[in-house]
Amino acid sequence: MDxxxxxxxxxxxxxxxxxxATLRVAQAGIPAAKKNGRKCEGDGRHVVDRLGAGxxxxxxxxxxxxxxxGGYFSVDRQSAPAGRRAYGCDPEGLGFRCQRRAALCxxxxxxxxxxxxxxxxxxxxxRCHHQFxxxxxxxxxxxxxxxxxxxxxxxxxxxxxxxEGRWTNYHGTGTCEVATRFALRSGDAExxxxxxAIAARAVxxxxxxxxxxxxxVRPIGAGWSPSNVxxxxxxxxLHTRRFNRCFRVGGADVRPGxxxxxxxxxxxxxLVDEVSDKFEQQGRSLWTSGAGNGQTFAGACATGTHxxxxxxxxxQDHIRAVQLVTxxxxxxxxxxxxxxxxxFVAATxxxxxxxxxxxxxxQLPVGALGIVTALVVDSVPKFLVRxxxxxxxxxxxxxxxxxxxxxxxxxxxxxxxxxxxxxxMIVNPYKPFKRPAMLRFLxxxxxxxxxxxxxxxxxxxxxxxxxxxxxxxxxYPWARGALLQFxxxxxxxxxxxxxxxxxxxxxxxxxxxxxPLADLxxxxxxxxxxxxxxxxxxxxxVYARHGGSTVVTLRFMERAQGLLAPARFPHNAVxxxxxxxxxxTAEAYARVVERLDAEGIAFTRHWAKSCRLDAARVxxxxxxxxxxxxxxxxxxxxxxxxRALFGSAVLDGLGLTG
Length: 658
Known about the structure:
Elements: H1 19-26, H2 54-66, E1 72-77, H3 82-86, E2 94-99, E3 131-132, E4 158-160, E5 165-168, E6 175-184, H4 192-212, E7 216-220, E8 235-239, E9 246-248, E10 264-267, H5 272-281, E11 284-285, H6 297-303, E12 319-326, E13 329-334, H7 342-347, E14 351-354, H8 356-362, E15 371-377, E16 380-381, E17 383-392, H9 398-404, H10 407-414, E18 422-427, E19 437-446, H11 456-459, H12 464-475, H13 480-491, E20 505-506, E21 520-528, H14 532-546, E22 551-558, E23 571-580, H15 583-598, E24 603-604, H16 615-636, H17 640-645, H18 649-653
Parallel strand pairs: 6-8, 7-8, 13-14
Antiparallel strand pairs: 1-2, 3-9, 4-6, 5-6, 9-10, 10-15, 11-16, 12-13, 12-15, 17-19, 17-20, 18-19, 18-22, 21-23, 21-24, 22-23
Helix pairs in contact: 1-2, 8-16, 12-13, 14-15
InterPro entries: FAD-bd_PCMH (IPR016166), FAD-bd_PCMH-like_sf (IPR036318), FAD-bd_PCMH_sub2 (IPR016169), FAD_lactone_oxidase-like (IPR010031), Oxid_FAD_bind_N (IPR006094)
Pfam family, one: FAD_binding_4
Keywords: FAD, Flavoprotein
């Protein structure tokens, strides 16, 4: 049949979907189209996942199945072409979209579970609020009915997922026993404020039901945290991953003096990767993030995820407002100066709480202040980064440059004589100055459309080699230093170096896709940068004496926002410990912590990593800020029974919910 005679809009793609996916779409029993110009996904916006080598076969099969050469096939530039360029497909970093101008009235075509989805928008229309629709991992439907946008989502936003059972987090490091799982799902409301108002009311009702049933609750995004901070047994779990739409913010939605174009309304289940993509499609960018992209943005903020941008804090610094749901209220929390207009806040069904203390507590809540349902996220104009990555023997005097914040001198000695945007050093703690360290620099430049693209290996680095060699390293401690060096060389690709042709990428293109870390030990300490040289010497001495198959990573950041941000010093050095998950590795980290304490070096630990904390230690580490956080918590949730609703053995032990 001719394409014009049966107008449809089709969005199907990812690296796993090859020709069989196309044939399955053709056999999905799609109803006949009504020629009224309506598109799928309710109001015509749609999403595109990553495409790999199957794209050309897909397009050919599409023509073969549906016939004709009418309609059009357009190519959109994507913000992060990681996997495609890595395998020689789509070398220019293009994503593919095939669509038809009018859609099947009742068709909704989705890909099934993908590892790292990519997205693009439909052409914008003239409405004030443009909605972006994301697929959720595990969405196995290829074609299914869809609602009209005007009608909204005529189903419950929260549904139960099967029978009571066990749930294990993404990295396989923690399990909730006797858990009843629920999912919070996005709807098709025209405006973001209406969408989150519906969802927040549903969440509040759900909290009441959980309390009546005598069950504790835990919001689960991507389940990314390797620590047990999101683990609670005999509980109700609320999965937010399908609640992941993002909305632009209009000028009338903000208070005077606030730049609306820099902001985006983000539902709680949107991944860091998704938020980054959406910003980049608008010519904007996140200014920092962690090494991975698989966390939900809300979850990453809740635990203080960070990177190594030397002039910035943590990812939670992007937050400008939070919608937080408790059993007794739906709260819209902002700084005292305010961000969103009164009319916007009222339309979200929330009570405005413009208070600096409450906002500082809500920026990093560690899951103990209620259920986050939406965020307003800030951005900067899109920019490029040039990566330099190499293996170099580092002189011990270089630590003095890093401790003093003289990143220009460090960069000039080992990479480019420029001010770096990002600095990271990964070392073998066994003879660290005699074996090459893995150095990574990013240099920020203004955005331009034409640039030589970096590959994923050039922009990022993974931990796979350490995971693979971890067991061997643990069984043969006598070979640990040499094998650890080999693992570093295999796991952290060298180049591009200063003599290689320069390549570039956006910030989002540098976000790594990690595999589950079940076999990897993951911990860190954050210290005052001025203590770096002394702390590093002590750490290496502990490993030399007691063993432990761990690489040590040095990263740098400024003080992060949020009362419970681990990066609480004016200038921070974050020291990560990554190695095989074993008793010996955990013991080595415990000895590092003991030695730092014994030498009087102040430090904090990452909430989402192995941390060995208790309430007394949290109070000692955070001091007055911890008291302020608890005061804000008690104002927000005055009833101890309601505070306990969000607790767990871990959070109770940390003094966050007790």
